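User: Show me an example of a complex going from sequences to structure tokens.

Assistant: Sure. Here are the input components:
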Amino acid sequence: MMGHVPSTGESAAAKVSDINSARPAGRRLWTNRLASAAMVGAVLLAVIPVGLILYYITVKGMAAMSWEFLSEPTPFSFRRAEGGFLNGLIGTGIMVGLATLVSVPLGILAAIYLQEFGRGLLANLIRFFSDVMTGVPSVFVGLFVYTAFVLPFGFGAVMGAAALAIIMLPIVVRTTEEMLKLVPLELQHGSFALGASKFQTIIRVVLPSALPGITTGVLLAVARAAGETAPLILTALGSLKVTTTLVGEPISALPLLIFDGARNPFAAGQERAWAGALELLALVLIFTLLARIVASRSKISS
Amino acid sequence: MTPSPLTAPASTALPNSAQAPDLTPQVGENGTPAASAAEPVFTIRGLSVYYGGNIALKEVSLDIMPREITAIIGPSGCGKSTFIRCLNRMNDLIPGATVTGDVFYHGQNIYASEVDPVAVRRRIGMVFQRPNPFPKSVYDNIAFGPRINGFKRDLDELVENSLRAAALWDEVKDKLKKSALNLSGGQQQRLCIARAIAVEPDVILMDEPASALDPIATVRIEDLMQELKKQYSIIIVTHNMQQAARVSERTAFLYTEVDEETSSRWGILVEHGETGLIFTRPKDKRTEDYVSGRFG
């Protein structure tokens, strides 16, 4: 604006009146309203699919939900209206649980390394591959585990868990590293100044301070793993039987059963898929709430 | 090997006769003579600090006396904080920082290769410019140091004593289990002092401990320092000359030297001595200009 002001006083005054006349009073207001409306519209557009998903899953899922659905395995025929997804519930529990047990400690340790010790080539390589891994389509992970483990050892829960762990690991690493970065350096220096070693500082000051954020990252990873379908087709295969065998026997998972039920032409199978979707959604929700409660318990009262 | 000062507490005997003429009002008031005949806590010789190859502090040599307050004054950027961080090897934590020269702590060089910086920091505590309590309860903040150092005796008693020594007990005794982050800025800083005391150090380094506090909180910290110097040797960095004059027995004046050609800057020690002399009869023109407020 300043650049356009001419040097002489007379034309400067003329310019001011020009500006006033060139900009009608209502225009800015109108632009502002338009921008606000666009933003609200964008929010609504983004929320509508989420709302519809929740709505349909709840309505359709509740219609087919029953105690039998939760406590019985899947029948052999999609036509039959009995049975449920117990086989998938147990399979998902075992595989996501195993994957979490492996990927969370490994991921947090890797993040601590990157943040506290990682300098130079190795750290940058780890960071780079973590980023790449986050974007790798999960079916590739399934193919990798299929070639490396399923071909020699057969389908099984451990193979499925391995695929899920590979998917979870980069998420845990990157979110944890971001959270560790947020812990103020002053806190660490305060700890060092009291004669704490690096290990004591990390365990007693850095990790507790970052705990709520790390919990969020772990939850994201768990939710992602619980919903993965493609890699499990290639590693767990799926099964109609309730099994807890870890190696050598195919095992089912909720997303696999939802996938099977939804793509078959029979109403009974499709209804079970809706109920399965609701069950998976509820599981992730319950898990999220529990983790939040645990994380907030560990904080001190204010 | 002689008894290691990093393990044995300093038994510093104060001299009984006031030999040196004493111009600092504080010293005159409580009758403690300047400890000029005592063994210095720190003997610093030719101390230089480089950050990534650029010199930040050049050739500082200074003795720090026990059981008194030494103030480090000087304009911003003259290396006061850099200097004080050399005394408990906090500069080790800054990537690219290198320290040359010798810092003898009761005769032992803390930069010798066999000295563990963690052991140094257990003897030489530090309070920072901005209060930095841990996001834990008041109690756990104080108990942090003793716990990591394997303290086995009555922790409750130690916490209470530390908080009393930092003049904070009465204000927080009912909220020991509450978050330390809820305390006011001044309370947080006294908590940090209590936290430093709880590991029973020999020296307390204070890096502008009151610069983030209001005047009332500042006075409380200064009063506290007068109490603490009976037991601890205190070194305080301050850019507040009145504060240095009020609280310290000795003052060291650092100043920035500039190389006109390369425009690189570094801190040097211009002069040091009894606080009264530094403020009333400085030997160096730059000190005189600084303490009389002509620049800085």
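The lines above are the inputs; the final block is the predicted structure for all two components together. The mean pLDDT of chain B is 86.
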